[in-house]
Write a structure and sequence with these properties.
The complex is a heterodimer of chains A (420) and B (170). With 420 residues, chain A is of the alpha/beta class. Helix content of chain A is 31%, strand content 19%. In chain A, strand 8, helix 6 and strand 9 form a beta-alpha-beta unit. In chain B, helix 4 packs across helix 5 and helix 6 packs across helix 7. Chain B has a single domain, classed as Aconitase, domain 4 (Alpha-Beta Barrel), CATH 3.20.19. Chain B starts with 5 loop residues before the first strand and ends with a helix. By secondary structure, chain B is an alpha/beta fold. Classes of the chains: A alpha/beta (420), B alpha/beta (170). The interface between A and B is medium-sized, with 25 and 24 residues. Bound molecules: iron/sulfur cluster (SF4). The site of iron/sulfur cluster has 12 residues of chain A, from helix 4. Iron/sulfur cluster binds next to helix 4 of chain A.
C-alpha cells in the first residue's frame, strides 16, 4: 500500500505497517520539546497528580526562550522553576537563553527525518522542515506525553502544496506563507499534514524551509513537511548529529494525497499582511502608502541567520529612516554569532538597528511590547490584535527583505526597488 | 453515553470557539463561561439544555482558537455528545481529552431540533427515536472510550498510574 510521508511516519510511530487517514491510533513519541512558558511550571503539577516522573528524560528537550531575560519577580520565578526541573531530570537537552525553541532544537541536532515529535508550542510544525512529523499540543496533553511517552492521533490526510519554477529576487519563504494564508485562509490546512513539494522548495536552504513549516500553524495544518534530502542531511551533520536513513522517509511515488495545490514560483511577488490577520495578505504594492513607526526583525520565523542576511543585503550602506526604530532580535545565540562573524550584524547596527536578546521577546508581548497606537511591520508569524503586547498597535507582516526596505523608506516598501 | 435519549440541539456550519466560549468571558471560571455558551447563535440554549442532550451541527464544529474552555463548557452543561460533519482539529482533541464524545456523522440532516436521539460512541450508532431511524457516525476506538468514561485524559491517567502502583504494591 502506497503511503505519503506523513502516513509513513505515523504508521511507524503507531507500530503498524500502514495507516489510513481518519483512523485514530496511539503513537509512541520519539521526542518531546517543552519551553519555559508551557513547560515545567504547567506540566510539573499534573505529573505530581499522576504520581510519576518523565517516561524517558533522554527524549525530552527543554528550552527557555519566552520569559528570557527575566524582567520581574514573576518571570524570575518561572526561570527558577524551569532550571530546577532541568536539574532534577537528566534531559536530552536544556538550553537556557540560547535562543528560540524552534530554532535551537534543530540547530543542536535533535531532529532528523522520520521522527514523531510533539512540542508544547503552536509553532511546533517547524520540525516538519526536517521530514519529522512534529506538531504542537497544549500543556495538559504534554503532561500526558511526558508521563507515558504516547499520544493518540487522528491519522491526517496529506495536502500537498507544490511550488514549481524559481522564486524571483526578494521573494522568500515568508512571502510564500503569507500568500498561502491569503489564498487559503487560516483554516486552509484543515489540521491535516501539509506537505511542501516541488523544485522551488527543494532549492530552499534549511532555515527557509523552517519558515514554511513554522507558518503551517497559521494555515491551520497540524504539521508542515518538506521532503528530506541532501540539504537536510548536511544541516543535521553540521549540527553534530546523524541524519539517519534519508531515503526511507519519502512519500511513495504512487501515494495519494487528499489534495494537491500547485503554484508557479516565478509569479509570486513580495507579500504583506495587513492587521489583524496573516490571511489579510496582498502584494506589497497594495500597502505602499502606509507609514511605519517600528520595523521589527524577530521570532523563530523571521530572525534566523538567513533572515538577518536578507535584511543586511537591503541595509548595506543605507540608514534607517529617522522616524523609524528598527529592532532586531536574532533568533538564536549561534545565529547571532554567525551574523557577527560574517559582518551581517555590523551592517544592521551601522544602519541604526537596536539589538534585542535572542528570545521570543516582543513576538508574543512576553518581554517588551510595542507602544500604544504605533504602526509596525514585522517578520514574525502572526499579527492578531494585541500580538506584540499592545492592542492599539497596527502590525503588518512581511519578509525580512520587506521589513528592512520599509525601515529605510519609513513606509511599507517593495524591497525589489532597492536591490537590483 | 447514557442509555436514555436526549434532545437534539441542531445548528449549522462553522460553530466556532468564540461562539462556544466567548472571548470576553475567558478570564472567568468555567461556570461563568458556560452560561454564555452559544448565546450568539441560540440565546435559549443554556436555559433549555439538559444533561444528556446532544449537539448536532454541520462542517467545522469548534474551528477557531485552541481555547480548551470551548469543549469544557459543553461538558460542564452536561452535553452527552456532539455529532457534526467535521471538526476544528484542536477542538476535536480538546473535547475527547475532556471526556466529551465528539463523533463525525455525515447524516446529521436526518436529525431535527428537539428530536430524541441516543448516541453510542462505541458502535457509532445514532438512534433517532422521534423519526425511528438509526444513523451511522464513525465510532471511537476502545482506548478513547475508556478515557471518556474516566472523565478525560487527566483522570484517566491518574487512574492508570494509581492502578499500576496498587499492582506493584501487591
Ligand atoms: S518567537 Fe514568537 S512564534 Fe516563535 S516560539 Fe516565540 S512566541 Fe512563539
Amino acid at each position: 500500500m502506497a503511503l505519503t510521508l506523513a502516513e509513513k511516519i505515523v504508521a511507524r510511530a503507531a507500530r503498524r505497517t500502514h495507516v489510513t487517514p481518519g483512523e485514530i491510533v496511539t503513537c509512541a513519541v520519539d521526542l518531546a520539546m517543552i519551553h519555559d512558558s508551557g513547560g515545567p511550571r504547567r506540566v510539573a503539577p499534573i505529573l505530581k497528580r499522576f504520581g510519576v516522573g518523565l517516561w524517558d528524560p533522554s527524549k525530552v528537550v527543554l528550552i527557555s526562550d519566552h520569559y528570557v531575560p527575566a524582567a520581574d519577580d514573576e518571570t524570575r520565578r518561572i526561570g527558577e522553576v524551569t532550571r530546577k526541573f532541568a536539574a532534577e531530570n537528566k534531559l536530552a537537552g536544556f538550553y537556557d537563553s540560547e535562543g528560540i525553541c524552534h530554532v535551537v532544537l534543530p540547530e543542536r541536532g535533535h531532529l532528523k527525518p522520520g521522527m514523531f515529535v510533539v512540542g508544547g508550542d503552536s509553532h511546533s510544525p517547524t520540525g516538519g522542515a526536517f521530514g519529522a512529523y512534529m506538531f504542537g499540543i497544549g500543556a495538559t496533553e504534554m503532561a500526558g506525553v511526558l508521563a507515558t511517552g504516547e499520544i493518540w492521533l487522528t491519522v491526517p490526510e496529506t495536502i500537498e502544496i507544490e511550488w514549481r519554477g524559481t522564486f524571483g529576487p526578494c521573494v522568500v519563504a515568508k512571502d510564500v506563507m503569507l500568500f498561502l494564508c491569503g489564498q487559503l485562509g487560516m483554516e486552509g490546512g484543515r489540521t491535516q499534514a501539509v506537505h511542501f513539494r516541488g523544485d522551488a522548495i527543494r532549492a530552499l536552504p534549511m532555515q527557509e524551509r523552517m519558515t514554511l513549516s513554522n507558518m503551517t500553524a497559521e494555515l491551520g495544518g497540524q504539521t508542515g513537511l518538506c521532503d528530506p534530502d541532501e540539504t537536510t542531511a548536511a544541516f543535521i551533520r553540521a549540527a553534530g548529529a546523524e541524519p539517519g536513513d534519508v531515503a526511507r522517509w519519502q512519500s511513495d511515488p504512487d501515494a495519494m494525497p487528499a489534495e494537491c495545490l500547485r503554484f508557479d514560483a516565478s509569479a509570486l511577488t513580495p507579500q504583506v499582511a495587513a492587521p489583524h490577520s496573516p490571511a489579510n495578505a496582498a502584494p506589497v504594492a497594495d500597502h505602499g502608502a502606509v507609514k511605519i513607526d517600528v520595523a521589527h526583525i524577530g521570532a523563530c520565523t523571521g530572525a534566523k541567520i538567513v533572515d538577518l542576511r536578507m535584511a543586511a543585503s537591503v541595509l548595506k550602506d543605507r540608514k534607517v529612516d529617522p522616524s523609524v526604530s528598527l529592532l532586531v532580535a536574532p533568533a538564536s545565540h549561534r545565529d547571532q554569532e554567525a551574523a557577527a562573524s560574517d559582518g551581517t550584524l555590523q551592517i544592521l547596527v551601522d544602519a541604526g538597528a537596536t539589538l534585542l536578546p535572542n528570545a521570543c521577546g516582543m513576538c508574543a508581548g512576553y518581554n517588551g511590547t510595542l507602544e500604544e497606537n504605533v504602526t509596525c511591520i514585522s517578520s514574525i508569524a502572526r499579527n492578531f490584535k494585541g500580538r506584540m503586547g499592545t492592542a492599539s498597535a497596527n502590525i503588518y507582516l512581511g519578509s525580512p527583505y520587506t521589513v528592512a526596505a520599509s525601515a529605510v523608506r519609513g513606509r511599507i516598501s517593495d524591497p525589489r526597488e532597492m536591490l537590483s | 453515553m447514557s442509555a436514555n435519549h436526549g434532545r437534539a440541539f441542531v445548528y449549522g456550519d462553522g460553530i466556532n470557539t468564540d461562539m462556544l466560549a466567548p472571548g470576553i468571558y475567558m478570564k472567568h471560571p468555567i461556570a461563568t463561561i458556560a452560561q454564555h455558551c452559544l448565546e450568539s447563535v441560540d440565546p435559549d440554549f443554556v436555559r433549555t439544555v439538559k444533561p444528556g442532550d446532544v449537539l448536532v451541527a454541520g462542517q467545522g464544529f469548534g474551528i477557531g482558537s485552541s481555547r480548551e474552555q470551548a469543549a469544557e463548557a459543553l461538558k460542564y452543561l452536561g452535553v452527552a455528545a456532539v455529532l457534526a460533519r467535521s471538526y476544528g482539529g484542536i477542538f476535536y482533541r480538546n473535547a475527547l481529552n475532556f471526556g466529551l464524545p465528539v463523533l463525525v456523522c455525515s447524516e446529521v440532516d436526518q436529525i431535527g431540533a428537539g428530536d430524541l436521539v441516543r448516541v453510542d460512541p462505541a458502535t457509532g450508532a445514532v438512534h433517532n427515536k422521534t423519526r425511528d431511524v438509526t444513523l451511522k457516525a464513525s465510532p471511537l476506538p476502545q482506548f478513547l472510550l475508556d478515557m471518556i468514561s474516566d472523565g478525560g485524559l487527566v483522570p484517566h491517567l491518574e487512574k492508570r498510574f494509581a492502578a499500576k502502583r496498587a499492582a506493584a504494591a501487591l
